[in-house]
């Protein structure tokens, strides 16, 4: 896929689109820094948790220790090492968020593309279904659906599915809006003339052109999903012990905020760091994919 | 206009009905309401279980149960409860408690969004704009419950330092309530302060971004330039011409976010231990109290649909170019 950039006016010069987007993204310093922070956090959670000499589910002999060299994030009243727990929680939260973003991104894109391309009654019906999901507060539906998950080891997958089922309409609406304008373009008409079927048009012509918008939307959903999962775990219907997540840690330690503040601040700080870096990455991607912005103005 | 309102209402009814049916099936399938009773030791006699199943209408097929439930609501019958509470009598006062929180939070968030959005647009790329953007991103990335606990603790510290209750941190009103009308109002408002701030803080950042970008767009439009060229004062152009146009689409954005706000209210109320819709929902889900959960979902979804309708109508009233049809 190439983007034609005009150099000098009449000589079309093709620049590989991905390199162009990457270059624009890297020029956005805050977004680049956020990407580094996010990758480091993920690396720390997935690799660091395995290397750290305490495990999230094994008691240490130290109860309610404030942060020290031995326990950088301190320990809780039962002797769990908080660093190990926060790393494990980060791992769970990030896994769920990425899963939610992937599922709702793919499903929402296809849904929106099909609706937008077909138009008419199909479009109306499909979008009504999408709107239907949005009239219910996500946390209520998620609590009902996730209530039976219990503490099974695959519970996080189900929580991810539930959250994806509640976030895909955002992607679908965005993609549909884009497809409505795309389908009037010549290359779609050309593809139709050559006898391309609906699915071929959707996957070969529409979705690649909507990819920028989809990627930005999916990035934002990662941040939304992190916050939704932590909220769900906080009210007691998300990840359950013995497994742990950042929301669950805050829920368990909310009464300790005055006496052992480290138990409350570290998990929260991690949530904010993850969500903030993801939001900044999304912002940088939005600018990088935005072709309407002339580069001379920046 | 009236025909349009009626037609939109007619469109809204099937949405609520289909939504309620899907959620009814979903909630019914989510667990056995008699699970706790069946697990009791020593075991509960068979006859008691059967009687309970009959009382909870579990001996009927789902479709029949749905119909039974739906047709009962106009008569004020919200269905049987596992915990034998009167769902209707329980939920209305709680809805009132939560509605005042959500309403005040929306108003505060709107005020914040307008001020922050307009200032950021007018002083684009200034230090103020960047500071607002940074704060917005930070609030957007902060879990509501974390912010709530943080503020609650600050308030507790403040109360302890001054040795008096300056800010209420627990409950939606004092127990027992003060006597007299004005003391009651003051008491309720005092309890609303912290939760409203939390909810508004988490809701306003996307709105202020929206106001900012539409203000920037409008400012560059020809008619705003013309108004300026005619010699109308900058401030007046901003308010009369730019802001008015920018405000119209905001109504839709706010209405669409209403369901999200109710989600936020559930979490916020939990932190501040309110007896509102939040704790009603959580205990209903925990007890697998099907009809209580359904009452919650139905009431909130109707509110969301109605306000989206109102937003559409408001849109038409504010923007004369919109043709109703």
Automatic annotation (TrEMBL), chain A:
TM ranges: 30-54, 96-117, 129-149, 155-175, 210-239, 262-285
ABC transmembrane type-1 domain mapped to chain residues: 90-282
GO CC term, one of those recorded: plasma membrane
Pfam family, one: BPD_transp_1
InterPro entries linked to this entry: BP-dependent_transpt_permease, MetI-like, MetI-like_sf, OppC_N
Protein localization: Cell inner membrane; Cell membrane
GO aspect biological process, one term: transmembrane transport
Keyword hit for Cell membrane: yes
Main location: membrane
Transport keyword on record: yes
CDD domains, per the entry: TM_PBP2
Domain of life: Bacteria
Membrane-related topology note: Multi-pass membrane protein
Entry keyword set: Cell inner membrane, Cell membrane, Membrane, Peptide transport, Protein transport, Transmembrane, Transmembrane helix, Transport
Family according to the record: Belongs to the binding-protein-dependent transport system permease family. OppBC subfamily.
Name recorded for this polypeptide: Oligopeptide transport system permease protein OppC
TrEMBL record, chain B:
Keyword Nucleotide-binding: no
Pfam families reported for this sequence: BPD_transp_1 (PF00528), BPD_transp_1_N (PF19300)
Domain ABC transmembrane type-1: 95-315
Membrane topology recorded in Swiss-Prot or TrEMBL: Multi-pass membrane protein
SUPFAM superfamilies named among the record's database cross-references: MetI-like (SSF161098)
Annotated PROSITE patterns: ABC_TM1
GO biological process: transmembrane transport
Entry's transmembrane regions: 12-31, 101-122, 129-149, 188-207, 242-267, 290-318
Gene Ontology terms: cellular component: plasma membrane
Organism domain of life: Bacteria
Keyword terms: Cell membrane, Membrane, Transmembrane, Transmembrane helix, Transport
Keyword Cell membrane set for record: yes
Subcellular location: Cell membrane
Family of the protein in this entry: Belongs to the binding-protein-dependent transport system permease family.
Protein name (Swiss-Prot/TrEMBL): Peptide/nickel transport system permease protein
């Amino acid at each position: 896929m190439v983007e034609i950039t005009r150099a000098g006016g009449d000589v079309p010069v093709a620049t590989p689109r991905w390199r162009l987007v990457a270059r624009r993204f890297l020029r956005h310093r805050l977004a680049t820094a956020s990407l580094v922070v996010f990758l480091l956090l993920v690396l720390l959670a997935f690799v660091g948790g395995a290397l750290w000499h305490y495990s999230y589910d094994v008691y240490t002999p130290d109860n309610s220790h404030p942060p020290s060299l031995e326990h950088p994030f301190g320990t809780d009243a039962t002797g769990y090492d908080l660093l190990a727990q926060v790393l494990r929680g980060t791992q769970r939260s990030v896994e769920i968020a990425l899963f939610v973003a992937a599922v709702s991104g793919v499903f929402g894109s296809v849904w929106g593309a099909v609706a937008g391309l077909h138009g008419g009654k199909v479009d109306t019906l499909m979008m009504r279904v999408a709107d239907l999901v949005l009239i219910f507060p996500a946390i209520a539906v998620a609590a009902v659906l996730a209530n039976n998950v219990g503490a099974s080891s695959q519970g996080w997958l189900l929580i991810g599915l539930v959250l994806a089922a509640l976030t895909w309409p955002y992607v679908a609406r965005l993609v549909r809006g884009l497809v409505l304008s795309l389908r009037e373009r010549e290359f779609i008409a050309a593809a139709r003339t050559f006898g391309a079927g609906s699915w071929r048009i959707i996957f070969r012509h529409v979705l690649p052109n909507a990819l920028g918008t989809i990627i930005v939307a999916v990035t934002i959903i990662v941040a939304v999903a992190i916050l939704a999962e932590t909220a769900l775990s906080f009210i007691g219907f998300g990840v359950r012990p013995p497994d742990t997540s950042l929301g669950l840690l805050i829920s368990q330690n909310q009464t300790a905020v005055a006496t052992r503040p480290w138990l409350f601040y570290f998990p929260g700080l991690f949530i904010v760091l993850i969500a903030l870096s993801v939001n900044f990455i999304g912002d940088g991607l939005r600018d990088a994919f935005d072709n309407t912005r002339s580069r001379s103005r920046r | 206009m009236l025909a349009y309102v009626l037609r939109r209402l007619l469109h809204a009814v099937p949405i609520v009905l289909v939504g309620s049916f899907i959620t009814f099936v979903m909630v019914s399938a989510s667990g056995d309401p008699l699970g706790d009773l069946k697990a009791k030791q020593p075991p509960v006699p068979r006859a008691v279980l059967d009687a309970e199943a009959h009382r909870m209408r579990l001996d009927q097929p789902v479709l029949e149960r749905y119909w039974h439930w739906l047709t009962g609501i106009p008569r004020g019958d919200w269905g049987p409860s596992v915990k034998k509470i009167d769902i209707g009598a329980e939920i209305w006062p709680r809805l009132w408690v939560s509605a005042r929180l959500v309403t005040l939070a929306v108003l505060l968030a709107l005020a914040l969004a307008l001020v922050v959005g307009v200032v950021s647009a007018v002083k684009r790329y200034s230090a103020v704009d960047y500071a607002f953007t940074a704060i917005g991103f930070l609030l957007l990335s902060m879990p509501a419950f974390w912010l709530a606990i943080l503020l609650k603790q600050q308030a507790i510290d403040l109360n302890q330092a001054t040795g008096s209750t300056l800010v209420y941190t627990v409950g939606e009103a004092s127990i027992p309530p003060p006597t007299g009308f004005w003391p009651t109002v003051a008491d309720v408002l005092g309890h609303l302060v912290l939760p409203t701030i939390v909810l508004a803080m988490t809701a306003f950042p996307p709105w202020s971004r929206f106001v900012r970008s539409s203000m920037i767009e409008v400012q560059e439009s020809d008619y705003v330039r013309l108004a300026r060229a005619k010699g109308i004062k900058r401030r007046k152009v901003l308010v009369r011409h730019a802001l008015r146009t920018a405000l119209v689409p905001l109504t839709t954005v706010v209405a669409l976010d209403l369901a999200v706000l109710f989600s936020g209210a559930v979490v916020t109320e939990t932190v501040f231990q309110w007896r509102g819709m939040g704790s009603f929902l959580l205990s209903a889900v925990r007890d697998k109290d099907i009809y209580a959960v359904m009452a919650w979902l139905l009431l909130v979804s109707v509110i969301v649909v109605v306000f989206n309708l109102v937003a559409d109508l408001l849109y038409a009233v504010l923007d004369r170019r919109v043709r109703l049809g």
